[in-house]
Amino acid sequence: MMRKVADCREWPSENNCSLVITGTEDEVVRAATEHAVSVHGETDSPELREQIRAALKEELVLQHS
């Protein structure tokens, strides 16, 4: 299963937030939405959740040999 990443540094922010959230897509959308509401003053809405989902990236996994 491919893990997803939401990185607050990729969003405009007055407090220069550096939080990174990693997990399954649903976990990350849920956690990132809660973070956006509690820290950044956003309103929880289907539109916010869709914006977050659209901005997710796949986690890069480095293989050590």
TrEMBL record:
Pfam families: DUF1059. The lineage of its organism: Bacteria, Bacillati, Actinomycetota, Actinomycetes, Kitasatosporales. This is DUF1059 domain-containing protein. It comes from the Bacteria. InterPro entries: DUF1059.
